[in-house]
Structure formats: structure tokens, C-alpha cells
Amino acid sequence: MAGHSKWANIKHRKGAADARRGKIFTKLIKEITVAARMGGGDINANPRLRAAVNAAKVENMPKDNMERAIAKGTGDLEGVNYEENTYEGYGPGGAAVLLESLTDNKNRAVSEIRHCFSKCGGNLGAGGCVAWMFDKKGYVVVERSAVDEETLMETALEAGAEDVREDGSNFEVITAPEDFEAVKEAIDAAGIPCIDAEVTMLPQNTTSLEGKQAEQMIRLMDMLDNCDDVQKVYTNADIPDDMIDAYIELKMEEVERFEMTPHPVEFDMYYSV
User: Fold this and answer.
1) How many domains does the chain have?
2) Are residues 60 and 32 in the same domain?
3) 87 within 8 A of 101, measured Cβ to Cβ
4) What are residue 222's phi and psi, to 5 degrees?
5) How far are the Cα atoms of 12, 152, 187, 195 from residue 145, in angstroms, in the given order?
6) Sheet (strand 230-235) strand order
7) Span 43-52, mean pLDDT?
8) Arithmetic mean of pLDDT, 65-94
9) Alpha-carbon torsion angle 232, 235, 241, 242, nearest 10
10) Are residues 183 and 141 in the same domain?
11) How far apart, in whole angstroms, are the C-alpha atoms of residue 5 and residue 197?
């Protein structure tokens, strides 16, 4: 489990830059569309759609965008037909990598994913090579400074959580997938803020990486996360905190550059000579 909440922090802080570039909205719209296609457009009767819509609300996606995505999924509006696939492979140092893809072009997706692995000292593997190393679990991350451990444990365990544990500066709440919503609702009702909450794939064991291998692994995760056809990326890599912190700092600088850079139209109107 070590390092999993670190990746949650990376996604959380990197999100501002991704949202500026439309990347988060693109991934969320795909998930909403596929969820509606698979289970119908009724949020109350479709847990996957409900989770996707809640994630979109967290990112402040306009309601019209969500409704159009649902309509495309149910067939009320014409839309792209996305195909779901799972890919597995090995990163630097033999670390396991599992990823979920939604794409309208499987050949393109496979090519881009394989390129990411090869550029970072890893390799795309056969189906089933690492999936057995992960368990599907509900996962909630709470900063230790936001709540005392006893309160969180009482709230989460009474709602059906399997475990509450410490991981650095955070608490991790682990649930069975079917209990995730009830536990998350209980935590929200108690006024406890979360920095990440999702049904995810947690590694059974971790692979420690250092030095160049750790740097390559961080780069691989970043490249895969930025791939348009990739929805989610999981790994059992355990990377030193200082390297993760340096990466987060770099991403925050990226966010600041995006925030300070004017749109081309704005530049032409106000800044060009």
C-alpha cells in the first residue's frame, strides 16, 4: 500500500494543470458516456454512472456537459463508441503496471501505450501478467491534519470499512467495492474532508525503486496518465518520498505556468505590439 496515497496527491495537485488543458474533462466525459451505455442513464440505478458524475462534479464540470455525455451513452444523441480495455506490463525494476483504457481506436491506444513503456525502460506484457497482484477496493484518503484517528476510525468502520491505516501524512480508508459509497457518505456526513476517493486497484505487495529506476517509473506514470486513451493507471511501485515530493513541486510549477500564461486570443488583444 505504501506510496498509493502519494500517487493520489500527485493526481490531486496535477489536476489543476490537467483541467486547464481539458484533459480531466475528456476522461470524465468518456467514463460518463460508457457508464450510461453499459448501465443506463438513471444515476440512482447505475452505481458506475453515479460515481462518474460525482467525480465530474468535484472537477466543476458544467451540468450540460454531463447531460450530453449521458445522452450519448444512452443513444439519445449521436456519439463516439468507446471500447474498454485493460493493459498490463512491467515498469523499471520489474514494478507492476495495470491500466484501464477507453478508446475509439484500439490500434492507436496500444501503439501509444507501448511507446510509453519502451521510452521509460518498461515493457507492455500479456493479459494476466500482473492483474493478479492487485485487489479491487474502495479507497478514501484523508489528511491526518484534518481529523483525529479515533474519529475517522469510528466513522469509517461503523459504515462498513475494512480498515483505516496511516500512510505518511495521510489516513487511508479501505473498503470492499460494494461498501465504498456508504463509507464515503458517512465520512462526508461527519464533515471530514477527503483528498481522494474512488474504487481503485490496490497492490497486494510493493516493489521498492530508487535512483534512476524511480525517476523512470515516475516518468512512465506521468506519460501514461497524459495519454488520451488511458483512463486510470495503477502500480505497485514504492518510490522514496523525496522523489515524489520533487515531482509534485515540479507539477505545481507547471500549474503556475498555465495559470500565468494568457490565452493566445487574450495575448493578441492586450499584449502583442
Assistant:
1) 3
2) yes
3) yes
4) -65, -45
5) 17, 12, 15, 12
6) 123-124, 83-90, 96-103, 230-235
7) 92
8) 92
9) -80
10) yes
11) 10
The neighbouring-strand residues paired with 215 are: none
Question: pLDDT tens for residues 127-160?
Answer: 999 999 999 999 999 999 999 999 999 999 999 9
Query: CA 145, CA 232: separation in Å to the nearest integer?
Result: 28
- Average pLDDT of the residues in 39-51: 92
Could you tell me if 191 and 241 lie in one domain? no
Find out whether 61 and 201 touch, Cβ atoms under 8 Å. no
Q: Tell whether the model's pLDDT for residue 41 goes beyond 90.
A: yes
Residues 219 and 120 in one domain: yes
In a domain, 188, yes or no: yes
Structural domain contains residue 268: no
Choosing from 160, 182, 203, the residue where a domain stops is: 203
Range of the domain at 152: 133-203
- Which SS3 state, helix, strand or coil, does residue 99 take? strand
* CA–CA distance, 116 with 204 (Å, rounded to integer): 24
Give exposure, 131-142, as e/b (b: 16+ Cβ within 10 Å). eebbeebbbbbb
**Which alpha helices (H) appear in the chain, and where do they start and end?**
4-20, 23-39, 47-58, 63-74, 106-119, 149-158, 180-189, 211-225, 241-260, 264-270
